[in-house]
Sequence to fold (742 residues):
Amino acid sequence: MNWRIKYLFLLTSSLLIMGQPFAQTHEIDSLSNLLKTEKADTNKVNHFNDLASALSQIKPDSTLILADQAAHLATSLNYVLGEAEAYQNEGTAYRLKGDYSKSLELELKALEIAEKTGAKKLRARVLNSMGLIYWSQGNYPQAIDYDIKALKIEEENGNKNGIASNLNNLGLVYWDIGDYAKALDYYKRALVIDKENKDNDGIAADYCNMGNIYFDQAGTILQASNKNDSLYKKALDCYQKSLSIAKITGDKQWQAYNLGNIGSAFIHLGDDTKALDYYQQSMKMDEEMGEKSGLAISLGNIGNLYTKNGKYSEAEDYLNRAITLENTLGEKQYLKLFEEYISHLYDTTKRYKLSLEWFKKAMILKDTLFNVDKNKAVTRKEMTYEFEKKEAIQKAEQDKKDALAEADKRRQRIVIWSVCGGLLLALVFAAFIFRSLRITSRQKNLIEKQKDKVEEQKNFIEHQKALVEEQKQLVEEKNKDIVDSINYAKRLQDAILPPVNLIKTYLPESFVLYKPKDIVAGDFYWMWSEATYRNIAGEEVDQTILIAAADCTGHGVPGALVSVVCSNALNRTVKEFKITEPGNILDKTRDLVLETFEKSESNVQDGMDISLVSIRHQQKANSYEIKWAGAFNSLWYVEKGEIKELAADKQPIGKTDNPLPFTTHNITLQKGDSLYLFTDGYADQFGGPKGKKFKYKQLEQLILNNSQFAMEEQKQNLEQTLDNWKGNLEQVDDILIIGIRV
Fold:
């Protein structure tokens, strides 16, 4: 498989030349001549900065020298804006050189001055550049935060070039996090503005970015189809348009980007020969320009293509060079992809250990770059921006309403004076309305009486509300006391559970998935190990480890109380009665549990189901002797890629009508085989699209599918599957699964 991994910057600068090569050269020459004759004043600072900006994309090192001269001269003249411009130019140069830490330090200095002086244009440019730094480092929430701040300033200033630039940068972030529809919308909006401005470099960037989106959309289609080919052809068309414009403007960096992208498109359209040709053209241009980031991407693309075509030695060489270069640049998103490529190469050539090592490195970087919290942060930033826009619109509408209301008040005053004149005439008719006034007085008295009754009812209701509030506070206090007691009980119950780090000491490759339904649980896990010792000959004697997963009657507080009784019975059986045979342990534990409950005058029917395994490493035979016994809870084990089951006895540890001795099962496992002990909580959990139980059959298949992974990864997969299955439904029981790789 091949992937396209080209990317691009959309730069903004006060004097970045976006025309033909000769126009840029002419501008640079003019500025150089001015510097030779200009006296040491603020104009010379500006010319230093202008020349540094014009050279930033083609000669970052020269930009650093010129910007440093500008900064020193500006400081001596107390010209703070010139000093800030110099810091911004230095920051841009360091960003293009891949030194993001130094770049960010300088951009922050420029931002501080821009904010103090109110220089909005400079502030927008700095924020835009900082957004690109964070994007390059894979810090998407920070990138979108600065992009949105810059966009708001550019919209306030009406700067169309700045708006298009920030729309493109926002598109880059959404492209990286896989929101293709939103990214494409930003790019199309930028393209409209760039075409209005006849900005060829901006148009080239827009077409290239749109091609990237079509390319990645095609990659999300799992099987080849007409729709798949159509999207790759759309991507190819966009890349070719971008390349044509870059050739007209003479921009070699854009040409290199698009040559690599066209190569990736041809891979997916089935033409590897053309793909390799375009990749090699891109690599050659990157080498000529000294563009390390682009060179690393070209090396990675060619290495991956060689893997596909069976040229494994060449593939390994190219991929190692790409990874080495990316390690110096610190661009994590591309380093992750190259690590995936080389893992795929080692897997293809059956060097599985190396393949796994590189795969793990790639996964660590993947977790670093992207998670649920970053998606939430990105969404929150965009929603804040949209809300502020709506708020501004609503304020304008409210101002309009206030103006209309003031006009209405003026009209009302005119009406009032007119009415007053009419009232003077109405005095003539006062005699006629006297009788009406008396009637009104009687009605008023009646209303006052009704008002008094309403007030009495209101006071009664307030009194009832006070009583309800008092009862509510009392219930809350009682509830708090109960919860505090249960939390303290949890501390006591935790004391009977062996610490996970102790389990890891004896069983390094293991996991414990333990999820109580309530604060305390009826499920518990238990472990015992005899000390390692040596015989008379000085040989280390094989050590026995006992570990169990138990499910006591009920859950919550009742289940927790039963778990304390059952855990104590297990401890007494092994430590006090020196019994280590699993079946015999369960027999004795049952006797001790019944003995405890028989002291009660009530007819207690409680007990537990359990899966108990004994593991002994037979060092001479280099194998593992497994002894197991179970009460209702079975044992699963994976041997040579196949999952098998040892069935439990159908009787509990507790009171039963026909108690029988528990059976001890014996098997021998080899290093790398796995054991799984569990209670019924996971299989009984309701969920899924139809709200049904998960069931044992599905759990068995899930464990088998994950058995080749590391134990901690198996635990994470089990937790993720459970969360997805349960959804918004309540957990119905305590959940406990123990996994052990011998």
